[in-house]
Structures are given as C-alpha cells and as structure tokens.
Amino acid sequence: MRVAFLALRLMCLAWFWPVTQLNSSTFLNKKRHKEQYVGENTKQKHGGRVDLKLKKMDSTKSMLIKSEQLLRIEDHDFAMRPGFGGSAIPVGIDVQVESIDSISEVNMDFTMTLYLRHYWQDDRLAFPSSSNKSRTFDARLVKKIWVPDVFFVHSKRSFIHDTTMENIMLRVYPDGNILYSVRITVTALCAMDFSSFPLDTQNCSLELESYAYNENDLMLYWKNGNDSLRTDEIVLSQFFVEDFQPYYGLAFYSSTGWYNRLYINFILRRHIFFFMLQTYFPTMLMVMLSWVSFWIDRRAVPARVSLGITTVLTMSTIITGVSASMPQVSYVKAVDIYLWASFLFVFLSVIEYAAVNYFTTVEEMKKLKRAKIPDSYEATQAMAFDGCFHDNDIDLTSFPEGSSTSNTGRNTQTRNSTVSAPTEGTRLHHKHPIKQHLSFIRSNSYMIDSYSRVLFPLAYLLFNIIYWSMYA
Asked: Residue 374: is its pLDDT beyond 70?
C-alpha cells in the first residue's frame, strides 16, 4: 500500500515538472524585459546615462539606531539635565567669530556669524570603547538628548545655518564628555552713543545666557579663559575692530533668580576718511565759496545775491542728507555742530552783503540830499541798473552853484553863531570810540567787505581748531 502511494506521487511530480519549468522561465523573461524597458527609458530621460534606483536600507539610519543602542538613549529620560537634584552642571563655552556682517546706525544693531561650542559631561551617554575614540553625530541625535538651552540676550533675529545640512555637530567621548557645536548668525542690539559721530568709538557686546536653568542648575563659564574667544581676520567698511574680549557676569530676574551670563565685548572705531570726503570737505568748500562774494563789487547785486543763496541751499542739502542716514536721536551729534556752524558762516556772509547794500544806499541818499537835487529830478534816474547809487552817475555840475554857495555861506554863518566857547558849568560830550568807529564804517560801507575778508576766514579757522581738538 505504501509502495503504491509513493509511485502515485512520483507520477504526479513527473506530470507537473514541465509546467513548472515553463512558468519559471516565463517569469524570468518578463522580469528581464521589464528591466530592459526601464533601462531604455532611463537612458532616453537622462541622455544615455543609466540611473537605476535600487531600494536599499539607509546605512546612516541603521548606524544611528546602533549608536542609540550603544549610548542607551531609550534607557534614560533626557528631558532632565545631567545630575538632576545635585549641584549645578558646569557648561564650558568657547566662540570663534567668523565675521561681522553688518553694523546699522539707524537700527542700532549688528549682525555676526560665529561658531558656538558647548562642553559638558553627561554620564548617561558614556559607552564602552576599547580604542577610547569619540563618536561624531549630526543634528538627528541632538534632538534626542539633553543639550544646554543657551540663547542670545537682546537678540533681534538669529538662525542656525542649514545648507546643505544643519550646521550642528555632536561629539561624544567614552567617558561621557560632550562637545556640541553650532554655526549661528545672530542680529543683536547695540546701544550706540552718537554724541561724537562720526569721530566716535562704539562698544558693543553679544550676551549668552541659559534661558531655563538658573545658577543653581547650570553654570556657564568660558572654557579657556580669555583664549575662549577667537576671531578670523575681520575687515569692515566703516569700522576698525580695536579689541575683542570675553567677560563673565550675573543677571538677576525678579521672578526666576540669578543666571550666569557671558559677554563678548568688542570695540569699534569708525573710519573718518569716508565722512571727510562726503561731508566735511564739501562743507568747507561751501563756506570758502561764500567768502568769494567779499571780493565782488558791492554794486553787483545779482552776482552776490545768487552766490549767497546757492551756498545756503547747498548747505541745507548736505545737512538733510546726513540727517537722513542717522537715527533720530534727541541729542546733538558732533557732525551736527560742524554742519550748523558752517551753515551759520554761510548765512552770515549773506547777511553781511545785506548790511553792505543797506549802508551803501543810505550813503548815496545822504549825498543826494546834500547835493539838493530838484524835485523834478527823479531819484530813480540816479540809480544804476542793479539798484544801487553810483557816485559817477550823478552830474553835480548841472545844479545851480549859487544856491549851493549861498547855502554854504548860510551854514557857515549859522555854525559861527551857534558854536561858542563853553561857558562855566557846561560839559563836553565826547563820542565813544566804538560808536565813532561804527559810524565811520556806516559812512564808508566798502570797509565792511574789507574787514570781512579777514575776519570770516580767521573765525572759521579758529572754529576748526577748537572742533578737531575736542573730537579728534
């Protein structure tokens, strides 16, 4: 019976064997044709380059899982800091400043790119190693363990660079020591003082502090003292970096207590040459140009008035341009003192010609009155085309001489009758020398231009000496 059953099974296998071979060969042919079809399509799509995407297991992911098993990530609660309930965990900091990207006077802030490195020990991440070599990880493992929550005080904007991957590095040593490094660009506030602008020196600082852990839980310190702050060669357009220094301090908050705070102080001294070309030299030239009117004839009204108005408007444009590029502060800056003082000199040169023109007109009118011009002779006929009286334009010989002679005799007789020797008890009133000098200048208006040619340059030179000695 058993022999018959075995014989029946052998007959069945012999019957189905060719069918099985045919099906397997057909399946292999279909698979081969499919791969050939995919390969041909890929060649056409990528210009003849075969790019078959094979599904393989992510090696980095598998290594990360193995590393998590090695570091026993799942065995600990990393929401708590290392040594919770004990003394504060020390976290060392060192910084390498890559660049100072920009400094804005209008917004009173600066932008800096730096490498921020943290050092601490977490016994929960210790692992056995025969070679005593560290293991380096990227940002994926950082999200699963505890890291210090350091933030930038007075920061306006900040971000961690993420091209091509997040610029985060985590290095774990067998004894549990950890190095955590990030590349950050931060824009922070800098309280600038512009009272000496543009001859100023600014002191800015970047401040680091733990957000959640006060000094009882976390102690921030500079890892290598003053050597903890390193800088690359920094070149700025308007500033020269005089000093970079790390400092340490404490910050108190009424609700949460005392916190350790680290400072990165740097001193910036402004380059003056840019402002000399853009502000100071044009201002000096405008003031000197206003002095040219002192050498122009006082009767040339259009020339002197147009020159004065041009210099005044140019100074107004310079002052407006400088004010537009500066923050609206409530105190006076050094550049404001220089610009407004220069504007005053230009304005006084216009006022000087107004005085010269007025005294010249008064002097000409007095000459006409002394000449006794008849009523029929209009005063407008004695004025030149520019609106001033000219001595040579008046022909005094055309007037009758008898009247002038009689008037002269009458005046002489009157003076002889009125002027007598001072009697006893009378006083002689002498004019003050300054008043005499001013009356002489009023009667000789051309002297105002002569004095202005000397006084204006000397006064402006004295102002520059005092200004540059105070601020330079």
From this structure: no
Residue 239 carries which DSSP code?
A: E
d(CA 11, CA 152): 85
CA atoms of 225 and 261, how far apart (whole Å): 14
Interatomic CA distance for residues 97 and 147, integer angstroms: 22
The tokens 């400043």 sit on which residue? 97
State the pTM of this model. Answer: 0.67
Does the pLDDT of residue 392 top 60, yes or no? no
The yes-or-no verdict on residue 395 having pLDDT over 70 is: no
Q: Calculate the CA 349 to chain-centre distance.
A: 36
- Section 429-448 average pLDDT: 66
293 C-beta neighbours (distance < 10 Å), count: 23
Q: Are 138 and 169 in contact (CB under 8 A)?
A: yes
CB-based burial label for 232 (10 Å; 0-12, 13-18, 19+): exposed
Q: How many Cβ atoms sit within 10 Å of the Cβ of residue 137?
A: 19
Q: How many angstroms separate the CA atoms of 428 and 374, rounded?
A: 38
Q: How far apart are CA 302 and CA 305, in angstroms?
A: 5
Q: Other C-beta atoms within 10 Å of 204: how many? A: 20
Determine contact, residues 97/244, Cβ cutoff 8 Å: yes
Q: Where are the alpha helices (DSSP H) in 72-183?
A: 139-142
Question: Would you call 215 helix, strand, or coil by DSSP?
Answer: coil
